[in-house]
Amino acid sequence: MLWLFVVMLTLFVINVPIAWSMAIAATVYMALGPKVPLQGMVQRMIGGIDTFPLLAIPFFILAGNLMNTGGITDRLVRFARAMVGHITGGLAHVVVVSNMIMAGMSGSGVADAAGSGTILIPAMKKAGYSVPFSAAIVGAAGTIGPIIPPSIPFVVYGSIASVSIGRLLLGGAIPGILMGIMLMIFVYIIAKKRRYPSEPKASWGELLRAGLRAIPPLGMPVIIVGGIIAGIMTPTEAAVAGAAYAFVLGFFIYREITWAEIPKIVFESVIGTASIVIIMSAAQPFSWILTYELAPQKILSLFEHVEMSPWLILLIINGAMFVIGCFMETLSVMIMSVPLLLPLLNHAGVDLVHFGVFFVLNVMIGSITPPVGTIMYVVCGLNKVPIVEFAKEVWPFVIALVLSLLIVTYVPILSLWLPDLVIPG
Predict the structure, then answer these.
(1) Using CB atoms within 10 A of its CB, is residue 413 exposed (0-12), middle (13-18) or buried (19+)?
(2) Comparing C-alpha atoms, which of 132, 69, 96 is closest to residue 384?
(3) Which of 19, 74, 95, 163 is geometrically suited to a Cys-Cys bond with 282, CB 3.0 to 4.6 A?
(4) How do the domains of the chain map onto residue ranges?
C-alpha cells in the first residue's frame, strides 16, 4: 500500500492534478496488485458519484454564479456597509459581514470570495487600504461560506460518512458566526494599529433603505435553510429552489442578467461542478483500495495500542488535517481522509456531525494558505496580488480561524445544540 501513496504523491509533486494523481495511482495498483478487473475501477468511479444528495452541488454553484451576476451580491454588500461600515476598519468589517450573509446562499467559499472581492477590494484600495490586506480579509471571510448553511463540503461529507445533511447544515450555523466574530476582532486590532479609516455612520433612514433593498436577496437563505429545517425540501431540492429564486431575482426583478449572460453563467457552473465531481469520482477507487488494504483498521489498531484520550486524538487529527490542507484541495482531503478516520472516531465516541463541522472548518483554512489554497488563488488572480504578499497579510486571520477551530473542536455544543434542537437524532 505504501507505493500507492508514493505514486500519487510523486505525480502530485510534479504538478499532475490531484484527480489524475489518484486515478493513475489506483490504476497502477489494480494493474500490478490484486486480481481486480480494471472494469471494477470504472464501476466504482461512476457508482461513487451516483447519489441523489450530490445533485445539490451543481445547483449551489449555479446559485452562487447567479447571485454574483444578478445584482444580489451588490445589494447585500450595501446592506452590510450600512450596518458596520462606521466601525474602525469599516470596509474590512463589511467584507466579513457580507460574506456571512452570502454564506447562507451559495454554499461555496470561492463564489462568496469572488463576489465580495470584485466589489469591495477596489473600494478598499480607493479608501487607503493596502491591496494585499484587502485580498487577505476577503479570502479569510470566504472560508465562512461552506460553514454557514448551505454548504457544498457538508453535502459531500454527509454522503461519505452517511450523516444527516440537514443536521450538518444546522451544525455549521453557530461556528460560522463565531468565525465572523473572530475575524472582525482581528480586523479591528489591525485597523487600529494601521489607522485604517472608517466610513460615516449610516443614518437610520439609510440603514432602513439598505435593509429594504436587501429583503428580496435575504429570502434566498430563508428558502434554502428554512425548507430543509421544515422538512419541506431535501438539500438537493433546496439547492434547486435557491438557484431558481436567484434567477428570478436577477433576470425578472433586477434585470441585471441578460440572455447573453446565461450561457456564460451555465458554462461556469458546469466547469465548477465538473472540477468537484472529477475529484470525487477519481477518489472512489483510491478509497476502495485503502479499504481493501484494511487501512482504517490499521489506523484504529495503532491508536488502540497507545493510550490516548479523545481530546488528544482530536488534536492530532486537527494538526494533521491542517498540514495536509495546506497542500491539497479541500474536497480531496475530505474524500481521502474521512473513510480512514471513521472507525477511529466511532471508537473514540466522537459525534460525526460535530466532527464534520470542525473538519470542514479545518480544511477550509487550508484554502487560504500557500501553496495550494483555492480561495487564495481566486482572490489573488482577480486582483493581481502576488501570493507572497497575500501570505504575509493572511496569517493574522489564519490565527483567528485556528482559534475558532479549537473552540469548535472542544466545545461540541456549538455544533450540536441547534441540530439537536431542530432535528433530534
Answers:
(1) exposed
(2) 132
(3) 19
(4) 14-22+51-422
